Amino acid sequence: MHIPDGFLTPYVIIPTFIITILFWIISAKKTKLTDQQVPIMGLLTALFFAAMMMNYPILGGTTAHLLGGATIGLILGPFAGCISITIILVLQAFLFGDGGLTALGANVLNMGIIGIFIPCIIFLVGNKLFKLKTTSSIFVTIFVSAFIGDLLAAVSAGVELSLSQPVFQYGLSVAVPAMAINHSIIGVAEGIVTVIIIGTLLKLRPDVLEKSPILGKLSMFQKKKTTEE
Question: Would the pTM count as exceeding 0.70?
Answer without folding.
Answer: yes
